[in-house]
Amino acid sequence: MPDGGADFVRIEGLKRYFDVSAPWLVRKLEGRPRQVVQAVDGIDIEIAKGETFSLVGESGCGKSTVARLVVGLYPPTAGRIEFDGNDMAGRHSRSDMAALRRRMQMIFQDPFASLNPRWRVFDIIAEPIRAFGLSTGKADLEARVAALLRQVKLNPADGRKYPHEFSGGQRQRISIARALASEPEFLVCDEPTSALDVSVQAQILNLMVDLQRRLQLTYLFISHNLAVVYHISTRVGVMYLGRLVEVAPTDTLFRRPKHPYTRMLLDTIPDLEMTGRQRSPVGGEVPSPINPPSGCTFHPRCPFANDRCKAERPKALPIEGGTVACHAIEEGRLPIEDRTYALNT
Amino acid sequence: MAAASNNQPLLEVRNLRIEFPTRRGTLLAVDDVSFDIAPGEVLGVVGESGAGKSLTGNAIIGLLEPPGRVAGGEIRLEGRRIDNLPYEEMRKIRGARIGAIFQDPLTSLNPLYSVGRQLVETIQTHLPLSASQAKARAIELLQEVGIPGAEMRIDHYPHQFSGGMRQRVVIALALCAGPRLIVADEPTTALDVSIQAQIIALLKRLCREHGTAVMLVTHDMGVIAETADRVAVMYAGRVAEIGPVREVVKHAKHPYTKGLMGSIPSLGVRTERLTQIDGAMPRLTEIPPGCAFNPRCTFKGQRCLVERPNLMPAGATRAACWLHDSGGVGAPILKETVDA
Amino acid sequence: MAAASRSGFSGWLHRVSDSDVWWSFKSSPMTVAAAVATFLIIAVAFLSPVLAPHTPFDPATLSLSDGLKPPVLVSPDGEWAFPLGTDDQGRDVLSSIMYGTRLSLIVSLAAVAVAMVLGISLGLISGYFGGAIDAVIMRVADVQLTFPAILVALLIDGVVRGLISVKRHDEIAIFVVVGAIGLSFWVSYARTVRGSVMVEKNKEYVQAARVIGLSPLLIMVRHVLPNVTGPVLVIATLNLGLAIITEATLSFLGVGLPSTEPSLGTLIRLGNEVLQSGDWWITVFPGVTLAALVLAVNLLGDWLRDALNPKLR
Ligand SMILES: Nc1ncnc2c1ncn2[C@@H]1O[C@H](COP(=O)(O)OP(=O)(O)OP(=O)(O)O)[C@@H](O)[C@H]1O
Ligand SMILES: Nc1ncnc2c1ncn2[C@@H]1O[C@H](COP(=O)(O)OP(=O)(O)OP(=O)(O)O)[C@@H](O)[C@H]1O
Ligand code: SF4
Ligand code: SF4
Ligand SMILES: [Mg+2]
Ligand SMILES: [Mg+2]
């Protein structure tokens, strides 16, 4: 972990529930109960300055919700988010809050929806600079935007164009340039390459790694692609139905996965090396987050589940530099084994 | 699972060209594409977004959306030409001989009818079965695609199924009349990784058990590597390389395919940076003369700028690249402004 | 903005002539004809003080001896001074139509503007904030929709008439009509804008603006509004035709503009009263003008709807 020491971003007991019940009248007339999605259900994360912390998990497990909570798009139902020692929900003056916001930015998944189609690229990138009053004048603003465009390997003359004149990969570069415009230290990236082709994905991932090194950025990186996560992360958190089931340094997670769900996810990675390894299809479907299973929410799909798993929610236990929330690991029922991967030749 | 070698291919695509008339002139979206699929074979078609994969697939199932049109070449199924058939006749072939699976399972299913009704209707359109026979066959199909409790679930509506199960229902629909060829356009893209594995396993099993050939269109190399026997790599409307999947993945011959393979992050080795191909695939209006890949290619020579390479034998695959021609790429290009 | 200002007007012209919308316009002869017709009618109407051969509603210029002259082309009794004939007061029908069209256009444009401002604001608020505010606005809209526009206008007109004297009423009649039509048309704007806002506000570019802490008002005005202009423009054009008709209907029913200041609708009503005596031209020519204007405007609106709909392109 670069820098180590004080935690730059600290998330404690974070919860976010969504009320998805039918309207009050309908509910009363038809005698339906309230329905609440427990999108994020008690999560603790600490991210050190300069590292890339990744969240992985299946669709609907709450990754995007965590991202939105962190940048303040949703207020949390419970829990706290600390950024560089500041409680984000605490009382701040307007200018203090703006100063905090300036230091964190978000990159979105869809390069076609994340840029206002009616705005020129120049204005899209200039918006945060203007909003935070960072530039000293028109010439300075133009110089800043040009520098940002160059930083993401686009041409400053591209500022005059509209988003639809660019390909998906180029648009994602524009999003990155915009996110960098307020000179943030912390970037939340919600599936920044999921909508892109692999060759374009490689360009964007390389760019993100370069920028991180040059600007000492800290990333919260969200993806469902384990190979991408393996490539880019310092540490990885595995989410299942709104909870973190395992957190570990990247190499440890991929070499010695502990939680049964992590192991299962690793088994689903397509085998490009063609060693003849069969992807073992995961049994069962992702349960609904509206009525999550009791105890360990993974128990209906877990081959190691026992009665305790059905009744008691497992706690996150420290192990090998990370944490795991699983009774079988705690009880020593489930041995931890090393995995090997065929090397790309 | 190697393709049958001597007998006639199930599907032959020869010099297929697909055009779009637009106000700025005619766009050539698919340019001189040729390939075969043998009975029981899985041909993977990969390529970047806009490379022309879906258009090729749609032309084969006769569902090219106007103003797109087949402007040249021919498509033969079991030796019979199908690219110039009238709509009605093509519609019969489409259900009976060719099945189609699309990316979004919800758009292929009618939300207003139960899954069973949709299956029974499709079965009865193509096979002379009574209602009860058709229903029995529908249940059989659902079981075959791995839907637990098929007898009960047959009366459920599409929204009561999860994404993975819906895609299985779509596969069951495509299988109704026992087609010889299935064109699957991004069948797993909208699905979770874990469910993706289930669908891939299912497709593979169906090919093995029924000898159905599959044209699997996707941009996910991982899916191809696991499923396909052969793979065609498309770039800017042309086939850049085609060959046995193992060869293409491990010993790619075309510079684009090589770059593509290098840019896939893999487990096992962690490198600082991924290999990347600079630049982007040209738009249809800006395809350069000569080799379409030449602006991004590090091996190019003078010949690549003017003369267009066709597929030629390159090791165990066939690649459209002058590097594999006895004439080579021509004189080196000395000075060139390389765009960052 | 710096980049935008540099390209200037010629840049704008170039972009317009290069755009898909312009292309679709050029390739539809019907639309071009409709546009030309609309433009001609509007230009002639607004230039009527200059172009009209007479000032028909200045009593000083009228002479009863000119009364009930038929159009020149159909009857030897006609005079070239009054090409479309005159009414019983000796007013030139052509000039009346020109002035009347001008008034009809002013009223309907103003009414559409009122409806737009009202509808867009309510739609934006409804869509962006949702919840209770949204529910209230949309229920009001539902109720409003169950009354036809004419009824709403009649209602408002009736209320206003009850409150003030007849003489005062004639003076403010134009505002009453504008207000009444405007009020009865806001619902379609509010609904469309609300729908678009609900789609747009969940788009990631709006969220990106929220991440940098912009206020909801700024986000609505800067980001959401420009993206809903397309559908609003279409409704406005189609509404213009409807507003012209509604105004004509109100005036025809005698609750619109007073006969001292006649619009197309008033002219038709006045002509209608003497239709029995065979003086058809007094009512037919204003009627034809009204039909042509509404048809042309509606054709433009239909084309605009298709041109701005990417799915139909
Ligand atoms: N605004 C909302 N209102 C109601 N439910 C929501 C809302 N946002 C998210 N959810 C629900 O919360 C759960 C988690 O959603 P989230 O978008 O965080 O998942 P995710 O892990 O990002 O999935 P994906 O990989 O598909 O993006 C889902 O069940 C989703 O339906
Ligand atoms: N209706 C159309 N008009 C003009 N061009 C079109 C039309 N439909 C497709 N194209 C163009 O044809 C090319 C090939 O499209 P196609 O859908 O086959 O791509 P693809 O390889 O399937 O990409 P993706 O991975 O995005 O599905 C694209 O460049 C596209 O812009
Ligand atoms: S706690 Fe029990 S059910 Fe949950 S993962 Fe561990 S063994 Fe499986
Ligand atoms: S033909 Fe030339 S430009 Fe094209 S891929 Fe081969 S070497 Fe590169
Ligand atoms: Mg998400
Ligand atoms: Mg496609």
What does this protein structure show overall?
Chain A is of the alpha/beta class and 345 residues long. Chain A has 12 helices and 12 strands. In chain A, α4 crosses α5 (138-151), α4 (121-131) runs parallel beside α6 and α6 (168-180) runs parallel beside α7. Chain A is globular. The two termini of chain A are 29 Å apart. The mean pLDDT of chain A is 87. Chain B contains 12 helices and 12 strands. Chain C has 313 residues and is mostly helical. Chain C has one domain (26-52, 74-312): MetI-like fold. Chain C has 12 helices and no strands. The model of chain C is unreliable at 1-7 (pLDDT under 50). The chains are: A alpha/beta (345), B alpha/beta (340), C mainly alpha (313). Chains in contact: A-B, A-C. Chains A and B meet through α6, α7, α8 and α9 of A and α8, α9, α10 and α11 of B. The structure holds adenosine-5'-triphosphate (2 copies), iron/sulfur cluster (2 copies) and magnesium ion (2 copies).
